[in-house]
Amino acid sequence: MATAMIVSRRMYTNLISLIKLGVDLKKARLIHQSTSNFEVSMPNSDPSHHSDEYSFTEFSSQPFYRRVNSQLVDMSGVFNQHKIIDLGCGTGGITKLILDRLNGTKETIIYAVDHSASALRSAVDDLGGRREAVVRFVHSEVQNLATSVNEQVDAVIYCNSIHYVNDKAMLLRQIRDRLRPGGILAFNTSFFEGSHPPESHDFYRRWMMRSLRTLRRDHGMFPDKNADKTGARRQLTPEEYEELLNEAGFEVVRREDFTVQVPEVGFYHISGFRDWIEGIMPGVPLGKGRDALQKSLNQVFKEMEIESVPRIWLTVMAKRAK
Ligand SMILES: C[S@@+](CC[C@H](N)C(=O)[O-])C[C@H]1O[C@@H](n2cnc3c(N)ncnc32)[C@H](O)[C@@H]1O
How would you write the pLDDT of the chain (322 residues) with one tens digit per residue? Predict the structure, then answer.
């Protein structure tokens, strides 16, 4: 009785809708009880790993980045679907774009999947007040999709993350199995063979050289190639992506290249993102890597007298063959 008295009317309604939707409240750990449209199942890990300092949040709120992802969300129409997976959801930028487009007439469920506990916590903090859908945060490797999401869905959106996975054929088969026949897969990436137009090469060469010099001068360090976790990743061509999709049982509906002018502030914020620093400067403490990259960036933009650097995003929409 005492518990019932402190449950507000809104919480009660949300609780009932969660039960209707089949949520296993015993297994779920609700981090924000007052926002019970959010179900979070995460390990009790060391709080020091939840630091936001090197998160993706700043970069993902850049207007050019939101535009390129909005384009994919709009092109694919995933927000018209009932059950959606946001794969590699990070700090929730794409989930937010989907929530913004819901009209509230259906009970949408979004599974937001990521292996980074700190990214998921940022997403929960940021989206905690949203009421448009049930969002289930799933702390898991995308490669475990077959077990981490245990029902078929209508759409999978996978933004700026597919390039992280080495065995894309296996992953695409798992995505196909999670989708109902005719279900949508939409993804984009700016790490594919062809994402760096030739006119951008000089910028990257100068930036990297200067960053390495700054790292040595200011911190007496070099990156350690042996610490590189990205070595086995190979960037695929758009045609190779299409071939893998066809082999995995998809039909490609649309494929487009988007040229985006990335401003200095975009490179500045990506230089503060853990995965970027670790990829470019393996083995270097994150703070020192960030410092070297950000300091040299401004010098290179000045020296080259440029305001932005072009980068190409590959965007693909496919359907699971029936
Ligand atoms: C560049 S961020 C993109 C985040 C989000 N999709 C967006 O576009 O705003 C890539 C995300 O993929 C996640 N990620 C990378 N490899 C993963 C894996 N194998 N399993 C689950 N998440 C992964 C990272 O933790 C990170 O949050």
Answer: 332 222 233 332 332 232 222 222 223 232 332 334 666 655 444 444 445 799 999 999 999 999 999 999 999 999 999 999 999 999 999 999 999 999 876 799 999 999 999 999 999 999 988 989 999 999 999 999 999 999 999 999 999 999 999 999 999 999 999 999 999 999 999 999 999 999 999 999 999 999 999 999 999 999 998 888 776 678 999 999 999 999 999 999 999 999 999 999 999 999 999 999 999 999 999 999 999 999 999 999 999 999 999 999 999 999 999 8
Cα 145 to Cα 25: distance, rounded to the nearest angstrom: 21
CATH annotation of 2-196+234-256+311-320: 3.40.50.150
Query: Which residue of 161, 195, 314 sits with most ligand 1 atoms within 8 Å of its CB, as the best mutation to test the pocket?
Result: 161
Best residue among 61, 66, 164, 277 to mutate for probing ligand 1, ranked by most atoms within 8 Å of CB: 164
Q: How far is the CA of 160 from the centre of ligand 1 (A)?
A: 7
Distance of CA 217 from the midpoint of ligand 1 (Å): 32
For residue 165 and ligand 1, the question of a CB distance below 6 A is answered with yes
Pocket test for ligand 1, best of 61, 115, 157, 190 (most atoms within 8 A of CB): 115
Q: Which residues of 224-262 are buried (b: 16+ CB within 10 A; e: fewer)?
A: eeeebeeeeeeebebeebbebbeebbbebeeeeeeebeb
Provide the residue ranges of all domains of the chain, joining segments of one domain with +: 2-196+234-256+311-320
For tokens 């774009």, the residue is: 97
Q: pTM of the predicted model, to two decimals?
A: 0.86
- Tell me the one-letter amino acid at 53: E
For the Cβ of 38 lying below 6 angstroms from any atom of ligand 1, the answer is: no
**Are 165 and 139 within 8 A, CB to CB?**
no
Distance between CA 74 and CA 135 in Å, rounded?
Answer: 20
Q: What ligand 1 atom has the least distance to the C-alpha of 273?
A: 1
